Amino acid sequence: MAFLSPWLYKKQIDKSDKIATSLSGLYKAAYHKFYIDELYLFVTKKVLFNLIGRPAAWFDKNIVDGLVNLTGNTTQAVSEKIKKVQSGKVQQYAIYFLVAVIGLALLFIYVWK
Amino acid sequence: MNLLLFITIPLLTAVAVLLSRNTQQVRWISLVGSAVQLAMAVALLFLFRTETASGNTGQMLFERQYNLFPTWHITFHLGVDGISIAMILLTAFVVIAGVLVSWNIKKMTKEFYFLLILLGLGAYGFFMSIDLFVLFFFLEISVIPKYLLIGIWGSGKKEYSANKLALMLMGGSALILVGVLGLYFSTPDHSFDLLKLSRLNIPIETQRIIFPLLFVGFGVFTALFPFHTWVPDGHSSAPTAGSMFLAGITMKLGGYGCLRVATYLLPDAAKEYSTIIIVLASVAILYGAFATMMQKDLKYINAYSSVSHCGFVLLGIGMLTTTAMTGAVMQMVSHGLMTALFFAVIGMIYDRTHTRVVAEMGGLMKVMPFITTILFIVGLCSLGLPGLSGFVAEVTIFMGSWEKPDIFYRIATIAACMSIVVTAVYILRAIGQVAMGPIKNEGYLQLKDATWNEKLAAIILVIGIVAIGVAPFWLNDLIRPATEIIMNKLTSK
Amino acid sequence: MLNDFFILMKSELVITIIIFVLLFIKIGTKMKNESLLSMVQVLLLANFIIGFVFNKEGSLFDGMFHTGSLIAFQKSILNLGVYLISLLCADWLKKSQHLSEFFLLMLSALLGMFFLISSGNLLIFFLSLELATIPVAALANFDLDKKISSEAAMKMILSSAFSSGILLFGISLMYGATGTISFAELPQQLDGSPLQVLAFVLLFTGFAFKLSIVPFHLWTADVYEGSPIATASFLSVISKGAVAFIFISALYKVFQPLHEVWYNLLMVLAIATMVIGNLFAIRQQNIKRFLAFSSIAQVGFILVGISGNNIAGVSSVVYFVLIYTFSNLAAFGVASAISSETGKENIADYRGLYKTNPFMSWVLALALFSLAGIPPTAGFFGKLFLLTAGASKGSYWFIGIAAMNMIISLYYYLMVVRAMFMDKNDQPIPKIKSNLATKFALLICAAAIVLVGLLSWIYDYIQSLS
Fold first, then answer.
1. How many Cβ atoms from other residues are within 10 Å of residue C96's Cβ?
2. From C276, which residue of chain A is nearest by alpha-carbon distance?
3. Chain C residues with beta carbon closer than 8 angstroms to that of A79
4. Cα(C298)–Cα(A82) distance, rounded to whole angstroms?
5. Which of A34, B66, C112, C354 has its CA 20 to 30 Å from the CA of residue B8?
6. What is the C-alpha to C-alpha distance for residues C151 and C149, in angstroms, rounded to an integer?
7. Residue in C334, C355, C339 with CA at minimum distance from that of residue C438
8. pTM attached to this predicted model
9. What pairing do the DSSP bridges indicate for beta strands C58-60 and B74-80?
């Protein structure tokens, strides 16, 4: 390197232009710093963020959280469905009472010894 | 040292707060009370060291036992070993920092400080209990204060988060309760006492049922995947001191429980389930880290990052080697201090800029040098810079995990190591954008730097972080004998 | 012999005397409400204190009536409950036109409950159960100007008549199957034959009706909503407590030979009761209906505790009923104070209560935490001991379901706490100027909620009695 640099600079500047055109591929790569920056940005933005990070955050917010909320909502929904039983009509209460008694009696005499 | 002091002093402080007449009294009483607790915790550390140095090799020191309910064989049995003392120290640090950071709360100050001190009391009691019933008692005491703290003084969707937190933590407690009752009845003479239970030979079939109940129950507190969803909303909606306590201490209650109750008492089941635990922990570590990258709100960043860091704790416990477990306890202490500090700083920033969204902030370093310096310290600790406590804890866990030659463990360790890179990405992005660069909002130029109480709180926590980071041997010597006892139980079978 | 009579029946005799005093006052003089109320309160307190002295084991009337120290303690708990009701609902009571009738009816029901706990055979059991039920139906109607109160009374009397019919059928079948009605002789005659099981199930439903066990609970919400709060609290706490006492003693002593049958029966019904109670409580907007369903869920827990067939089950149930008395009465007490002053009974109206009435909000919050089972309130210890007693049979699923139900119940209890402490209200309930007696009673209840659990000797004392 110590010999190359005086040779490149001491003489005229066009020497470097000739090298640039002849070694165009390598020159281009070096100019763009071997595309390391682009590679880095590609890996982080496209791969890490979009492919892994975004889905992870989405998964957490919607699926995992969703399951938790689902348990809460299910409880509310079941509660909504069965509220008709408490109808306010005493006749119906009496029927439920009787059915329950007979049902339990049958259950424990015949089925569950 | 009378361990009961850790219960009576906070209780007296809480009662004194209730009886005080104006806000000034409330604040100062709380400050004095928590300072006394900090002094006691440090004294406890030194007394413990003198005791062990003078040859006292008992498993638990400073034990106290009082008969509570003889019918149920419940005694008020307190005692500490290295792990407990480390956690008690952590609690003392976080409580006093929390008290200081909340100095300017104006709404219902009395109730706020009362609830905060009550939380501390619950934590102290939990770490000192040897009787499982009393342990459960202290675990449950903190549910309502947390609910009220988030619901009344919180921000954002606070009612939703408070409800979610209370119910999910209660769910974890329900599992723990069933597990504890299972343990109680698995012994011929029915005991809740941890030490008695540890000497028993519990049949493997029973262990297989009880271990998941206990581990998952405590795991809910430590953000075991997939039961971690209370963390992001809970931590973000809570007031600053609330978040500090939640992330700093509540999540450690779970880790302590997983180690001390689940793994210690049920070693055979621990070995059988360790594969699943390691998988779930690794998922939590990586998943938490990646989810953090996408967050735009500083508090959510810290919350998800806590999920990730607490995954390390579970990984260390799941690896079942002495070094890994010691690392897990260290990580509990380190992360506790660090996350408390992080939330404290976020609180300070929010008080001034009224935003937590990273994109809206910038160039704060010019305006608030102290706060941003602390922010940098916290960030560097989070990504494991040597010299700060995060590095010590994580390295210990990795060393302990690497001891196992099997390919599965190696993969898990490598995956966990990779998360450090991801952590670095999100931390440096977030902090860099907040602290450096051009000032986004002209109004920020008027902002003031930290006040005396905020500075004090930050310095206290930084002392803790640096002390562990620079001279970790005191913490290691403290914890290691205790984890060795746990390991002995695992290997003696 | 006469000595025995006075000592063993002291509580009943004192209550009878009070009833007659009230009767004479009603017929004779014209006493102002305040003085009448104070007099009754003093007398009830005196009976409570008497309940702790001169207790001995013994039976009277050829085994029809028996008592002992545990039974005396149970009676004291019920007595304390009525005393607290008379203090807590003082505002409403003072305004009532028929105060002496109110206490006549309530004390007659209480007398019935005393005999119920002390009953020694099936007939006395039935008789005292009726005495404990019918006056309460009249009490349910005490808000004479409200139609909903009459509706509650009608529903109550119709439902209890129906249930008594089935109960009586069960009693006669039991007599037919075993040849005896005496509790002392019954266990030897039980051998699990189908007729006996049928009779037992029918008998069980008599208990189930009074305890509001699902699916026999349908009358509960409507009756609690329509009755004045004093009656609702009586039904919820005293009535349930008394029946719980006799229930556990009947199952453990008299029907012990059938314990496999009732263990399974209790398991099924406990789960149904807890789940249904919780599911309905989530929806409620009226505080009385809310507390009704919450008590149904609490009874589910008691059933869990009883099912363990554990010696410690008896003391756990008694302990729990004591704590439940304080917690539920405190909740009803706050509701009563608010209702008698403003007439508001919806949870939505409780929003922002903390700003205007901090003391009442804290008491109600404390009571709800105790009902939910949160430490350090006594409710935690009560529920935990029940669960431990129930877990002794070793069924993880059963206890797991019970523990899960604690989560659901926490949700709806927190709903009320949230309304009081966190929600905003443009027109919050103004500062309630309540009676000194009410404040005193609320303070006692609050103190008891906090202390009864932590003072562990209270539980040991109960344990020693059983």
1. 18
2. A79
3. 279-280, 282-283
4. 20
5. C354
6. 5
7. C334
8. 0.90
9. unpaired
- Rg of chain B on CA atoms, in Å: 21
C362-413 residue pLDDT tens: 999 999 999 999 988 899 999 999 998 888 877 888 888 999 999 999 999 9
User: What does the alpha-carbon distance between residue A41 and residue C215 come to, in Å, rounded to a whole number?
Assistant: 66
**Residue B262: DSSP 8-state:** I
Burial of B394 by CB count in 10 Å (0-12 exposed, 13-18 middle, 19+ buried)?
buried
Query: B294 CA to chain A: closest CA distance, Å?
Result: 6
Look up residue C235 and give its two tokens: 């039904």
**Integer angstrom CA distances of residue B331 from B2, B247, B392, B413, B461:** 28, 13, 8, 15, 15
Q: Chain B: nearest CA to A31, how far in angstroms? A: 27
Residues 6+ apart with CB under 8 A from B463: none
Q: What angle do CA B316, B319, B324 make, to 5 degrees?
A: 45
Helices (H), C89-121: 90-95, 99-117
What gap in Å lies between CA C6 and CA B454, rounded to an integer? 72
Report the chain C residue with the minimal C-alpha distance to residue A83. Answer: C280
Chain B residues whose beta carbon lies within 8 Å of the beta carbon of residue A48: 290, 293, 422, 425
Sole residue written with tokens 């509570």: B68
Helix axes B158-186, B204-221, angle to 10 degrees: 160
Q: In angstroms, rounded to a whole number, what is the distance separating the alpha carbons of residues B142 and B164? A: 15
Sign of CA dihedral C226, C228, C233, C239: negative
Residue bearing tokens 């002794």:
C392
For residue B29, the tally of other CB atoms under 10 A from its CB is 22
Write out the residues of chain A at the interface with chain C, using a CB-CB cutoff of 8 A: 75-76, 78-80, 82-83, 85-86, 88, 90, 92-94, 96-98, 100-101, 104-105, 108-109, 112
| Of residues C199, C307, C186, C213, the one with CA closest to residue A109 | C199
pLDDT digits (tens, 9 = 90+) for C83-141: 999 998 888 888 888 888 899 999 999 999 999 999 888 999 999 999 999 999 999 99
**Least CB-CB distance to A108: which of C159, C201, C216?**
C201
What CA dihedral angle connects C157, C159, C165 and C166, to 10 degrees?
A: -160
Per-10-residue mean pLDDT for chain C, 466 residues long?
77 89 83 82 87 79 82 91 90 84 92 92 92 93 88 92 93 90 84 86 91 90 90 93 92 85 88 91 89 93 87 88 94 89 84 86 92 90 90 83 91 90 79 81 89 82 79
Please provide the size of chain B in residues.
493
* Residues B85 and B48 sit within 8 Å (Cβ to Cβ): yes
Burial level of B156, CB count in 10 A (0-12/13-18/19+)?
middle
The ipTM estimated for the assembled molecules is: 0.89
Backbone torsions φ then ψ of C295, nearest 5 degrees: -65, -30
Of B374, B358, B345, B349, give the one whose Cα is nearest residue B447: B349
> Residues with Cβ < 8 Å from A39, sequence gap 6 or more?
none
| CA C180 – CA A81 distance, rounded (Å) | 46
Hey, where are the domains in chain C? 2-465
Report the amino acid identity of residue C85. Answer: I
Q: Which position has the token pair 């202390």?
A: C451
Beta bridge partners of C121: C182
The residues spanned by each domain of chain A are 32-84
* Dist. CA C103–CA C82, nearest whole Å: 10
Angle at B215 between CA B211 and CA B216, to 5 degrees: 115
Residue B11 CA to its chain's centroid (Å): 21
Cis peptide bond prior to C376, omega within 30° of 0: yes
3-state helix, strand, coil in chain C (%, to 5): 80, 0, 20
Question: What is the C-alpha to C-alpha distance for residues C281 and C287, in angstroms, rounded to an integer?
Answer: 10
Q: Which residue has the tokens 């079948």?
A: C173
A104–C283 C-beta distance less than 8 A: no
